[in-house]
Design brief:
GO terms for molecular function: indole-3-glycerol-phosphate synthase activity; phosphoribosylanthranilate isomerase activity. This is Indole-3-glycerol phosphate synthase. Its EC number is 4.1.1.48. Pathway: Amino-acid biosynthesis; L-tryptophan biosynthesis; L-tryptophan from chorismate: step 4/5. It comes from Halobaculum saliterrae. With 268 residues, the protein is an alpha/beta fold. It has one domain: TIM Barrel (Alpha-Beta Barrel). It is 40% helix and 15% strand. It contains 14 helices and 8 strands. It has helices spanning 10-21, 36-45, 70-79, 91-94, 98-107, 136-139, 143-152, 164-172, 193-198, 217-225, 235-238, 243-246, 249-260, 262-265, and strands spanning 51-55, 84-88, 112-115, 131-135, 156-161, 177-181, 207-211, 230-233. Helix 8 links the parallel strand 5 (156-161) and strand 6. Helix 3 (70-79) runs parallel beside helix 13.
Length: 268
């Protein structure tokens, strides 16, 4: 785990500190995972942009909170064409839970990513998922071990990177799914050119996912043109601002469809 957190934004530092204190599970999880690359390929074959839509009740960088049932939101995202889902399980800062993920995965037939800040092997065992997020910046020397531990349980590890050095570390750890986070966790600023700079350095064998800052269908097309095999989209689909008063599952389905149809409908 990265103990040098002075260069992190205070909100991220707080998340990381909470993650270090969070207990893991006593037993060991074994997962029969749904393939994320296969789900992306199926979406492509159907003429859809491969989107991982994120069930994110709230976050330190989002205004408002969704109070909808996570299962209803997840089903609406699948209705809108999402190839896969991401479910927040971090409780203190994102209002997520492993129970939300468990219920969502039982309700849908697409791959489900567990979005959390995992820093120890025993935290992998909290809940079954198809894909687990491992953030290179937080794991340093432990990254390769966590990638192996995740695979040993049947998970598909998605390694998140933001810099060339982190990309190199992910590749050295044997990562086959790599997410490039356009958000700098030090300043919380978003720059889509981050993905554009790193994508050419990833080998063809890697499934490459663009994360953060994809706010419009035009952004989605930009990331796809830069080489993204898939897109992880949260706030633009959840539309959290003002959702306490006006949000509906229909909004979420329509928002998802805006992105999954971004290459065919020409929305800007």
């Amino acid at each position: 785990m990265n103990t040098q957190s002075d260069d992190l934004a205070p909100a991220v530092r707080s998340i990381l500190e909470a993650a270090a204190e969070r207990s893991g599970a006593d037993g060991r999880t074994s997962v029969d995972a749904r393939s994320l690359p296969a789900a992306f390929a199926a979406a492509e074959a159907d003429g859809r942009v491969p989107v991982i839509a994120e069930v994110k009740p709230t976050s330190p960088t989002t205004d408002g909170t969704r109070r909808d049932d996570p299962v209803d939101l997840a089903e609406a995202m699948v209705e809108g064409g999402a190839a896969a889902l991401s479910v927040l399980t971090e409780p203190e800062h994102f209002d997520g839970s492993v129970e939300n993920l468990r219920r969502v995965r039982e309700a849908v037939d697409v791959p489900v990513l567990r979005k959390d800040f995992l820093v120890r092997e025993d935290q992998l065992d909290a809940v079954e998922a198809d894909v687990v997020l491992l953030i290179a910046r937080f794991l340093e020397d432990d990254l390769a071990d966590l990638v192996t531990a995740a695979r040993d349980r049947g998970f598909q590890p998605l390694v998140e990177v933001h810099t060339r050095e982190e990309l190199a570390a992910a590749l050295a750890a044997g990562a086959e799914l790599i997410g490039v986070n356009n958000r700098d966790l030090g300043r919380l600023e978003v720059d889509l050119s981050t993905f554009e700079a790193l994508a050419p350095e990833a080998p063809d064998r890697v499934t490459l996912i663009a994360e953060s800052g994809i706010a419009t269908p035009a952004d989605a097309r930009r990331m796809r043109e830069a080489g993204a095999d898939g897109l992880l989209i949260g706030s633009a689909i959840m539309d959290a601002e003002g959702a306490d008063e006006a949000g509906t599952d229909g909004d979420v389905a329509a928002n998802t469809r805006r992105f999954t149809a971004a290459e065919t409908e020409g929305d800007v």
